[in-house]
Structures are given as structure tokens and as C-alpha cells.
Design goal:
The structure holds two protein chains of two kinds. Chain A is an alpha/beta fold. Chain A has two domains: about 5-165, HUPs (Rossmann fold); about 190-310, Rossmann fold, CATH 3.40.50.1220. Helix content of chain A is about 25%, strand content about 25%. Chain A has nine helices and 16 strands. Chain A has helices at about 15-30, 40-50, 70-80, 95-105, 210-220, 225-230, 260-265, 285-290, 295-310, and strands spanning about 5, 30-40, 55-60, 85-90, 110-115, 115-120, 120-125, 130-135, 145, 160-165, 175-180, 195-200, 220-225, 250-255, 275-280, 290-295. In chain A, a hairpin with a 4-residue loop joins strand 7 and strand 8 (about 130-135). Chain A is elongated, with a radius of gyration of 21 Å. Chain B is α/β, with parallel strands linked by helices. Chain B has a single domain (about 1-245), classed as Rossmann fold. Chain B is built from six helices and 13 strands. In chain B, the strands form two sheets. A nine-stranded mixed β-sheet of chain B has the order 9-8-7-10-6-1-4-5-11, with helices on both faces. A two-stranded antiparallel sheet of chain B has the order 2-3. In chain B, a hairpin with a 2-residue loop joins strand 7 and strand 8. Chain B is globular, with a radius of gyration of 21 Å. The chains are: A alpha/beta, B alpha/beta. Chains A and B meet through helix 3, helix 4, strand 5, strand 7 and strand 8 of A and helix 3, helix 4, strand 7, strand 8 and strand 9 of B.
């Protein structure tokens, strides 16, 4: 039969997390439909229709979905669930917020953060901060799945799916969006950047984090942080990489002043290349780093900035 | 207002997990166990509500083996008033936990349920949302800040792009993120006092819930190991190596 993927978007752009989730969905149950719930989100629907392997895009364009609230999304998705074998969402804060409600109402277990589709009913997923990988088989019936998008390649463009408007669902009236404060940045998005430069407690202050940002900008990189740096208030919460923050898998992860607690490693150890700068040569980060430099970051970062400039970066 | 706080006994967050040789799970024998760190934050938030006069009673609930009563004792030492232990051996999936909690909520009639956003063992991040759905309640997940205002909870949430605030009608479910508060250490007098607080023992059958797992765990394996790296001597050498590897 068919699977339904919940689109991740900001009413203008479709996040590439969606195309990655489509890849996972296609191996669970093809063809794939995408649900775009939003307000004035026609552009998003057009982008979704171009993803290869997508047969249909359902668009619920309504003020109710200007910001996706789990309670209203529940009634919308449940009204469609009967048509699908599987419902998937990227394991973003939005997908994680919404999907367990659907699983509970359908009385099926949810399979969280899958890394691999072994067969249409069998999946690999990380447990214990990725220190163990569990292979689980779902029972017969609907599959409700969140997808760790760094583990899947984005489905290519080249599709031309039909776009179908659907009516908004009912509003149970139990919760509503009030406001949001989003971090603004010209840098690439953390979870899809090719290069991530992350700073930890070693930076010592929000002011010093500029040293990280300078190097990141030379490399056109996203900026990340360890929990310690976020807790200390050096950077906002959405910079956090780790077990309970964001999971990244860039081509290069440069960890500076990060000791490498297992909770942090959980969020970055699938990066292609890991480089680390730390003054403590015993720091656990060096056990996973391909290239390690034992140095004082307050010397190394300005030096790296100059050296990159010399090399025309 | 009564507040329910479900707490889970998990492997301590500082322990390095080892996968069993027969790949049936991870080795929990003689391993230090603690309260799930996110649940500690939930207990702390409930205790602060009580200190501010917004909560009248805090009930800590744990679903698990007899030893889970130690986790409840920890919550009682932090300031919870009484406990409910739903005794069962073996793994209980989030949906079954949510069903048991729903039955407890119906009996206890709390104004708010606060629990961790995820347990650091199975990393599912499901229970709070499932409970809210089963009850038909609103939810504030990944909470960064809570303000109670009459019949509404204003919950600021940590989301991928930054922070978002939702207004949720009470009763509601809230799940905690890391920066909601910093949990206190229980003082010795409070640990002693906690020994006298009541813990009621129940079983899943008392709530009519079948906790048989629905998902079949076929295998638990070690993740792929990263090969050992090399140390470089200078920033220039580091950049050379990264260029050679095609990373920059």
C-alpha cells in the first residue's frame, strides 16, 4: 500500500529532512504521499511534488497550521491514517512532538529514530545514546516511525506528484501556539551543513565563542556546541549537539574545547571526519577524532583563522 | 492542584554501556542505576511549584521492578509527598506505560503531569505525548520554562530553530528539557523523612493494562567503531591533513 510522510517546512521552504524521510518511507511502503500542513504553503507543496518517488502531495493550507501544534495535527493525521500502512516523520522536534500522539491513538507502538530499514517491518535504531544499536521488528499493522535523517540520503528531485488540497481537521482547543523566538543566522543549518565547527566549555564565555564563529565562517560551516556551552549561556539551545540535542553527520566535524562526553559523542560520531582541538591530551574526544591537535584553543583558533585566510578561505 | 511525576530507573548517565556478548541487550548486572536525569528535572519542577504554593501534592510514580522503589524514594527525598510503584519485571514499552499512567491519572485527577522528555536508556521520547493523546489533553513537550496562569500553562519549549511558547489548557502533560531547572540534591534530613513517606504497590493488572512488548527485539549490537586517528603537531598540519582528506 502506501506511506505518508509529514513534511518539515517553514511555509516557504521544504526542509531536506523531508526528502530524506521519503527515502526511508519508500523502503517501508511505496508509493509515498507527503502531507504538507501549513498556512500559505503552496510553494512548499510544489517543492514536495518534485521529489522522486512521491505519488501525491496532500496540502492542508489553513491558519490552524501556521505553526504545527501537536493537538491539531493529531486530528488531521488521524483523519487520513486509514489510507496508509505507514506514517513517518523526520525525528525533528516537530516530528517527535506529533507522532507519538498518532501511535497512541492508533494503539500501535512507535519506532523512534530509525537508522536503517532492514525490511519493511524491521528497523535499526540507536539506544543508550547510540552506544548500542537495537534491531526491532514491528507487529503487523500500521507502522508509526520517526526517522533519524542523518542516516538516510535525500530522495532525488525529478518527480511530478499530483497536488491535492484537503480540508483542515477540527481543533480540539487544548493547546495553541503563542510565540516563538528563532535564532537568526546566515550560516548553514546545523543538521544539514557539510562542515560543523563546535565549541565547548573550554571557550569560557559567549564573547570567546566569536573565535569559533570566525573559523566557521571561513569554512562556510555551521556552528554547534556541547551541552556545557549551552548550559553556561555561551550560545542558544538550538546549537546543542548530542544525545538529546541535534544529531549531525557532516563531512567534517571540528570539535574545539569539547572534552567528548558520551552524550555529546552520540550527536556527532557518525560524521565522516572528526577533528579535535583540546589542551587536555587525555580528553575522550581524541578517541573518536581522526585528527587531534593538543593545543590551547585561544592560540589555535586565531592561528587557524589566519592560516585559512592565507590559503584563500 | 495535584501534580503527578512519572520517574524511571535507568542506567546512570555516567556509566559506559556494554552490549552483552549474546546480543540480547545491554549488560545491567552490577551497574549503577539512577533516576532518569530528565525525570529528576520533572521532580524538581513539581517541588518548585509546591514551594510557590501552586501545587498541593506531588505523587511520584514508577513502573518497573521492586528496585524502582529506590527511584521513587529519591523523588520523595527531593520533595514529592507519596509514591506509587507499579511492579512489573521486564521492559515496558512507552505505549503500555502511557496506558498505566492514564489509569492512574483517572484515579488521581491531577492538574498537571510532568515527566522527562525521554529516558536515556531506550531514547524513545514518546511517553508524555502518548499519555496526553490517550487523555485527550494538551501537551507542552521539551519544556524550557513553565508559567501557570489560572486554567492555562504557558510553556516555553526548546525546538530545532530556537524557542517556542505554547498555551496549554489544564489539565495537561509537560515533558522536561535540560534547561528547565537544575535539580537539587536531597538533604540528609529529607532522605530520612522520605523513608516514612508512603509508597503504594500496584501491578499493571490492577489497571487492566497488558504490558507484553509489541516490538520484538531481534538483536542489540555494538555500533560501528571509529578507527583510531592520528595526532598532529600544529594548526597548519591539521589543515593540510583535512585538505588531503578532501574535508575542506
Amino acid at each position: 500500500m502506501t506511506s505518508l510522510v509529514l513534511a518539515e517546512h517553514d511555509n516557504k521552504h521544504l526542509s531536506d529532512a523531508t526528502a530524506k524521510t521519503v527515502t526511508a518511507a519508500a523502503s517501508v511502503s511505496a508509493p509515498v504521499h507527503i502531507l504538507v500542513a501549513g498556512e500559505n504553503c503552496a510553494a512548499v507543496a510544489d517543492q514536495a511534488a518534485k521529489i522522486a518517488g512521491v505519488e501525491k502531495v496532500l496540502v492542508a493550507d489553513d491558519a490552524l497550521y501556521a505553526h504545527l501544534v501537536a493537538e491539531t495535527m493529531e486530528t488531521l493525521i488521524l483523519s487520513l491514517a486509514g489510507n496508509y500502512d505507514a506514517i513517518l516523520a523526520p525525528a525533528t522536534t516537530s516530528g517527535k512532538n506529533i507522532l507519538p500522539r498518532i501511535a497512541a491513538k492508533l494503539d500501535v507502538p512507535q519506532i523512534s529514530e530509525i537508522l536503517k530499514v532492514v525490511s519493511p517491518d524491521t528497523f535499526e535504531r540507536p539506544i543508550y545514546a547510540g552506544n548500542a544499536i537495537q534491531t526491532v521488528q514491528a507487529p503487523a499493522g500500521k507502522k508509526i516511525i520517526t526517522v533519524r535523517v542523518t542516516a538516510f540520503k535525500a530522495a532525488a528531485d525529478g518527480g511530478s506528484a499530483a497536488i491535492e488540497k484537503i480540508a483542515a481537521g477540527s481543533d480540539p482547543g487544548t493547546a495553541k501556539f503563542a510565540s516563538e523566538a528563532l535564532s537568526k543566522s546566515e550560516r548553514p543549518e546545523l543538521t544539514s551543513a557539510k562542515i560543523v565547527v563546535s565549541g565547548g566549555r573550554g571557550l569560557g564565555s559567549a564573547e570567546n565563542f566569536k573565535l569559533i564563529e570566525k573559523v566557521a565562517d571561513r569554512l562556510h560551516a555551521a556552528v554547534g556546541a556541547s551541552r556545557a556551552a549551552v548550559d553556561a549561556g555561551y550560545v542558544p539551545n538550538d546549537y546543542q549537539v548530542g544525545q538529546t540535542g541535534k544529531v549531525v553527520a557532516p563531512d567534517l566535524y571540528l570539535a574545539v574545547g569539547i572534552s567528548g562526553a558520551i552524550q555529546h559523542l552520540a550527536g556527532m560520531k557518525d560524521s565522516k571526519i572528526i577533528a579535535a582541538i583540546n589542551k587536555d591530551e587525555e580528553a575522550p574526544i581524541f578517541q573518536v577524532a581522526d585528527f587531534g591537535l593538543v593545543a590551547d584553543l585561544f592560540q589555535a583558533l586565531p592561528e587557524m583563522d589566519q592560516e585559512l585566510a592565507k590559503r584563500g578561505r | 492542584m495535584k501534580v503527578l511525576v512519572p520517574v524511571k530507573r535507568v542506567i546512570d548517565y555516567n556509566v559506559k554501556v556494554r552490549v552483552k556478548a549474546d546480543q540480547t541487550g545491554v549488560d545491567l548486572a552490577n551497574v549503577k542505576m539512577s533516576m532518569n536525569p530528565f525525570d529528576e528535572i520533572a521532580v524538581e519542577e513539581a517541588v518548585r511549584l509546591k514551594e510557590k504554593g501552586k501545587a498541593t501534592e506531588i505523587v511520584a510514580i514508577s513502573i518497573g521492578s521492586q528496585q524502582a522503589s529506590e527511584t521513587i524514594r529519591t523523588a520523595l527525598a527531593m520533595g514529592a509527598d507519596r509514591g506509587i510503584l507499579v511492579k512489573t519485571d521486564g521492559d515496558v514499552e512507552p505505549l503500555a506505560v502511557a496506558k498505566i499512567l492514564k489509569a492512574i491519572v483517572e484515579a488521581e485527577q491531577p492538574g498537571l503531569v510532568i515527566t522527562g522528555k525521554q529516558a536515556i536508556d531506550d531514547d524513545s521520547n514518546q511517553t508524555g505525548q502518548m499519555l496526553a493523546a490517550l487523555l485527550g489533553w494538551g501537551q507542552g513537550t521539551f519544556a524550557h520554562k513553565l508559567e501557570l496562569d489560572g486554567s492555562t500553562a504557558k510553556i516555553e519549549r526548546e525546538i530545532d530553530g530556537g524557542l517556542q511558547t505554547v498555551e496549554v489548557k489544564l489539565p495537561a502533560v509537560m515533558t522536561t528539557d535540560l534547561r528547565l531547572n537544575e535539580p537539587r540534591y536531597a538533604s540528609l534530613p529529607n532522605i530520612m523523612k522520605a523513608k516514612k513517606k508512603p509508597i503504594e504497590e500496584k501491578s499493571p493488572a490492577d489497571y487492566g493494562v497488558d504490558v507484553t512488548p509489541r516490538l520484538k527485539v531481534l538483536k542489540v549490537a555494538e555500533p560501528a567503531k571509529r578507527g583510531g586517528g592520528v595526532k598532529v603537531k600544529s594548526v597548519a598540519e591539521l589543515l593540510d591533513k583535512l585538505s588531503e582528506a578532501g574535508a575542506i
